[in-house]
Design a protein that fits this description.
single chain; 430 residues; 12 helices; globular; FAD/NAD(P)-binding domain; alpha/beta
Length: 430
C-alpha cells in the first residue's frame, strides 16, 4: 500500500516539503495537505500589498496549480492522535474531519505575538495575511481622505499620524513603503503632512541583523522624516491614541503591531514534546519520541548545528529550507533516499526600504541604494515558487504609473483581530 504523508500547513515549510515529495517521489508516496486556504502566501511582500504596489492575488500561490497530484483538505487542524496516526481537523464549514497518516509533517507556522498591553488587541492590527494588508491599505487611504475634511486641527493631526510598533523586518518595511504611500496620497491635498512613528523597544532597528543594515535603515527612514523611537514601547492604547513608555501620548487612529510572532498555539493540543511553545525535534526534524512525525518552520524547535546549544530562529529562510529537509527525511524514513541533518548557514540578509532604497549584505558584502534594491527584488523573485512575472510586472507598473488610491472596502476591522489565536477578540472589536 502506498505510504500516506500528511502535511499540516502550507506556508514556506509545508509548501517546500510538498514540493520535494511530489517532484522526487510522486509515484512512491501519496501526499495530503491540510490547510485553511487553497494557496501558499508569500508573506515578505505583504508590505508591498498594503502600500498598493503588488496585487494581493500575486502573493497567493495556488496549491492546486503547483501540486495537481496532491489531495488538498481545506480546514484547520485541531488535534493529532499519535497512537492511531490520525489528524483531526475542522473543514471550512466547521465540520469535524479525520485523516490517517503513515508520516506526518507539522508546519502550522506562527501567529501574531501579542504583548499584555492595555487596549492593544482592541485598537491595533497586525500584518500577517492578505486581509490585514488589504485592511491597512484601505485604512490609510480613509484616514487621509477624512483628514482632508476634518473640522479641527486635532482630528486632522490624529488621522495623519501613523504608528508602527516593532522594528523587525515587517515593521521596518511597512513603515518605509507605507510612508511613501501616504506621501503620494497627500499630493492631492496641498498643505497636509503625514507623521510616521516607528517604535522599537531595542537599541536599534532590525536587532537581528548586522549593524550596517541597521544603520542604513535608520538613516534612510530618518531622511524621509519617519520618527524612530528607540528604547521605547507602548504603555497603553485606547481609541484616541497610544501612550508611549517615554511619557508621550500620541493621538492617532492607526497602530500597526509588528512585534513578532509566536508558534501557533494549536500545537499545545497535539500533545507532543515542546520547547518554548515549539515542537521539539532532532537534527533530522523528527519529533522527539515520535519518529513518524516531523516538524519544520516557525512551529519547530530544531537544533541549530551552526550555533550549538541553540534552536534555529523563526525566519522565512529557515522555514523554507527546513520544509525541504523534512520532505527529504520523510522520504528517507520510507527507504527512498538517505537522511540528512538540517544545517543552514545564512547567505546574507536584506530589507526593502521603499522607493529605490534597500539594504543588503549578500555573502557578507554590505550594499545599499539601487544595487541593494535590485538584489532584494531579485531574491524575492528567486524565492517565490510562482507568480514571478506577475509580481515583476506589478513593480514595473508602479515605477511607471501613478498608484491607484481607492478604497475597496473588502475587509472590515473585526475581520482582522490582532490576536488571531483568540476568536473572542474579533467579536469585541468595533
Amino acid at each position: 500500500m502506498t505510504p500516506q504523508v500528511v502535511i499540516i500547513g502550507a506556508g514556506f515549510a509545508g509548501y517546500n516539503a510538498a514540493r520535494v515529495l511530489t517532484r522526487k517521489h510522486a509515484r512512491q508516496v501519496d501526499v495530503t495537505i491540510v490547510n485553511p486556504t487553497d494557496f501558499m502566501l508569500y508573506q515578505p511582500l505583504l508590505p508591498d500589498v498594503a502600500a498598493g504596489i503588488v496585487n494581493p492575488r500575486h502573493v497567493a500561490l495556488s496549491l492546486a496549480a503547483a501540486f495537481p497530484q496532491v489531495r488538498l483538505l481545506p480546514g484547520i487542524a485541531t488535534g493529532v492522535d499519535a497512537g492511531d496516526r490520525v489528524v483531526r481537523y475542522a473543514d471550512t464549514e466547521g465540520r469535524p474531519r479525520r485523516v490517517r497518516y503513515d508520516r506526518l509533517i507539522i508546519t502550522v507556522g506562527a501567529v501574531n505575538r501579542v504583548l499584555p498591553i492595555e487596549g492593544s488587541t482592541v485598537h491595533s492590527h497586525g500584518l500577517k495575511g492578505i486581509p490585514e494588508a488589504l485592511y491597512l491599505r484601505d485604512h490609510i487611504i480613509r484616514q487621509v481622505e477624512l483628514a482632508a475634511v476634518a473640522e479641527s486641527d486635532e482630528e486632522r493631526r490624529a488621522r495623519l499620524t501613523f504608528v508602527v510598533v516593532g522594528a523587525g523586518y515587517t515593521g521596518t518595511e511597512t513603515a518605509a513603503v507605507c510612508q511613501l504611500f501616504t506621501r503620494s496620497l497627500l499630493r492631492r491635498y496641498p498643505g497636509l503632512e503625514a507623521r510616521w512613528i516607528l517604535v522599537q523597544y531595542a537599541d536599534h532597528l532590525l536587532p537581528e541583523l548586522r549593524p550596517y543594515l541597521q544603520k542604513t535603515a535608520e538613516r534612510t527612514l530618518g531622511k524621509r522624516g519617519v520618527e524612530v523611537r528607540l528604547n521605547t514601547s507602548v504603555a497603553r492604547e485606547d481609541a484616541d491614541g497610544v501612550l508611549l513608555t517615554d511619557g508621550e501620548y500620541v493621538a492617532t487612529r492607526t497602530v500597526v503591531w509588528t512585534t513578532g510572532v509566536r508558534p501557533d498555539p494549536v500545537v499545545e493540543s497535539f500533545g507532543l514534546p515542546a520547547v518554548r511553545g515549539r515542537i521539539q525535534t532532532d537534527e533530522y526534524l523528527a519529533v522527539t519520541g515520535h519518529p513518524e512525525i516531523y516538524a519544520a518552520g516557525d512551529v519547530a524547535a530544531v537544533p541549530d548545528l551552526v550555533n550549538p546549544g541553540e534552536i534555529t530562529p523563526m525566519t522565512g529562510q529557515h522555514a523554507e529550507r527546513q520544509g525541504a529537509a523534512a520532505g527529504r527525511n520523510v522520504a528517507a524514513s520510507l527507504g527512498l533516499r538517505a537522511a540528512r541533518a538540517y544545517k543552514h548557514h545564512p547567505l546574507g540578509f536584506l530589507v526593502d526600504l521603499g522607493g529605490w532604497k534597500a539594504a543588503a549584505d549578500p555573502l557578507g558584502i554590505p550594499l545599499s541604494g539601487v544595487i541593494a534594491k535590485a538584489i532584494t527584488r531579485g531574491y524575492h523573485l528567486y524565492s517565490m515558487p510562482g507568480n514571478r512575472v506577475r509580481v515583476a510586472v506589478d513593480w514595473a507598473l508602479d515605477a511607471l504609473l501613478p498608484r491607484q488610491t481607492v478604497q475597496l472596502g473588502l475587509v472590515s476591522a473585526d475581520a482582522v483581530p490582532l490576536d488571531s489565536a483568540d476568536p473572542e477578540i474579533s467579536r469585541r472589536i468595533v
